[in-house]
Write a structure and sequence with these properties.
By secondary structure, this protein is of the alpha/beta class. It has 2 domains: about 15-205 and about 210-215, P-loop containing nucleotide triphosphate hydrolases (Rossmann fold); about 225-325, Helicase, Ruva Protein, domain 3. The protein has 13 helices and 11 strands. It has helices at about 20-30, 35-50, 65-75, 90-95, 125-140, 175, 190-200, 215-225, 230-245, 265-280, 290-300, 305-310, 315-325; strands at about 55, 80, 95-100, 105-110, 115-120, 140-145, 145-150, 155-160, 180-185, 260, 305. The strands form 4 sheets. Strands 2-5-8-1-9 form a 5-stranded parallel beta sheet. Strands 3-4 form a two-stranded antiparallel sheet. A two-stranded antiparallel ribbon has the order 6-7. Strand 3 (about 95-100) and strand 4 (about 105-110) form a beta hairpin.
């Protein structure tokens, strides 16, 4: 990676095409976050698709820095919640506090921000996890009978450490379904790690704000309007249904490995993610390959494997590999579709 890549690009005007603006955002993020291009791409997809992300990776892989940088570039308010076993729901969403002079008043919790990092979410007990997952789904919190809406846009990135099993509370399968995607973050390559050391050892690059909450909401609305052909929609549903009934797609050998497949939320996540990916690619329509590229991210946390699969050392991604290979992508000719304006 050359030194020239440390130099900031010019800020695209508000009238620039969405793809140009989002490419500038990605470039700005990559000035700070090295070697995590896929992660950054998927975070933008989740943002545009109004979804949330569950991130799994060992400590030290810049998970906190990633979301903090996204918040700075997007221009939203950032909040970090360190989940611990002694945390209670009011530490997350807020509650009533008593002042000796003014009486009871409402204190809003750290979840009231545009970008919320729920660090090591599996270290807190179920009631705390549920408080966060509820506001993710509902978009508001009720305190003492009064409803408080979270800021818009609202994005949660929850992290969990895969290497520890003591002192953690596994997220229930039904609640994990609230996340649009689960991303796995691995170690950087040796070349990327050397670049990280070079950048951070001297004067770390400082990200600039390129967008703002209002513009991000406009991009989300643009993603909502992206065209989805009925064949693409049917393809997404077939993929998800194959995780529930693999026999229907000629995959009977997978049935013993699956206890639970993806819910309709998975199909919705694929379509919303496909629309967001189309905006990133400068298209006004979703292609089958958009759905296929998001399949693992949208389903790996939604399939529940059987004891037989665990005994055979079968991972969720292996099951999803078999499904994506068995179901052909439909031929959809949308070449005449116009680019997103």
């Amino acid at each position: 990676m050359s030194d020239s890549q440390d130099e900031p690009t010019s800020v695209p005007p508000r009238t620039a095409p969405p793809r140009e603006q989002l490419e500038a955002v990605l470039y700005e993020l990559r000035r700070v976050i090295v070697g995590q291009d896929r992660l950054l791409d998927r975070i933008l997809v989740a943002l545009l698709g109004r979804g949330h992300v569950l991130l799994e990776g060992v400590p030290g892989l810049a998970k906190t820095l990633t979301l903090e940088t996204v918040a700075r570039v997007m221009g939203g308010q950032f909040s970090r919640i360190q989940f611990t076993p002694d945390l209670v729901p009011t530490d997350v969403v807020g509650g009533q506090v008593l002042d000796k002079d003014s009486g009871f008043s409402t204190r809003l919790g750290p979840v009231f921000a545009n970008f919320v990092l729920a660090d090591e979410i599996n270290r807190a007990p179920a009631k705390v996890q549920s408080a966060l997952l509820e506001v993710m789904a509902e978009g508001h919190v009720t305190i003492a009978g009064e409803t408080h809406g979270v800021p818009s846009p609202f994005f949660v990135l929850a992290t969990q450490n895969p290497i520890e099993s003591e002192g953690v509370y596994q997220l229930p399968e039904a609640q994990v379904d609230r996340f649009a995607m689960k991303l796995i973050v691995g170690y950087p390559t040796a070349a990327d790690e050397e670049e990280i050391v070079r950048r951070m050892a001297a004067d770390p690059p400082k990200p600039r704000q390129l967008l703002g909450p209002e513009r991000l909401r406009e991009l989300q609305e643009l993603a909502d309007s992206v065209f989805v052909d009925h064949r693409v929609r049917s393809y997404a549903v077939r993929l998800v249904n194959a995780t529930r009934e693999p026999n229907t797609e000629g995959l009977p050998h997978l049935e013993p490995y699956l206890d639970l497949g993806g819910s309709p939320r998975a199909s919705l996540s694929l379509i919303r993610g496909g629309r967001a990916l189309a905006v990133l690619r400068g298209r006004s329509y979703v292609m089958p390959e958009d759905i296929a590229s998001l399949f693992h991210d949208a389903l790996r946390h939604r399939v529940v494997l059987s004891y037989e699969a665990l005994a055979a050392d079968v991972a969720p991604d292996q099951v999803l590999d078999a499904i994506i290979e068995a179901i052909p992508q439909p031929e959809v000719d949308l070449g005449g579709g116009r680019a997103v304006a």
